[in-house]
Amino acid sequence: MRVLVDLNRCQAFAQCVFLAPDVFTLHGEEALRYQSRVDEAHRDEALRAAAACPVQAILVDRLDASGAAQQEEQLDGR
Q: Whole-structure pTM over 0.85, yes or no?
């Protein structure tokens, strides 16, 4: 799975950190850090965190094997 966070929208309410601490962490008081690739073991946590975000700044996208490389290239601007 791929996780994207709109850091311009994020207000550091940290609901995601409480719901998915293996995916999201706060650095300092307001800087959010996150894992952009999430394995299936943390899938439900990432989905709950995205749903709980008060400003809907988190996007979780499931990548299949065939489209993963193409979508990654688009994100990287290749």
A: no
Could you give the angle at the alpha carbon of 25 between the alpha carbons of 42 and 51, nearest 5°?
55
Instruction: Delimit the domains of the chain by residue range.
Output: 2-76
What SS3 state is found at 48? Answer: helix
- Enter the DSSP assignment of 37: B
CA distances (Å), 64 to each of 1, 32, 42, 61, in order?
9, 27, 16, 10
User: Which position has the token pair 């990654």?
Assistant: 72
CATH of domain 2-76: 3.30.70.20
CA atoms within 13 A on the CB side of 39: 2
Two tokens at 34? 């996150």
- Could you report the per-residue pLDDT of 10-67, keeping only the tens digit for each? 998 999 999 999 999 998 877 899 999 999 999 999 999 999 999 999 999 987 655 4
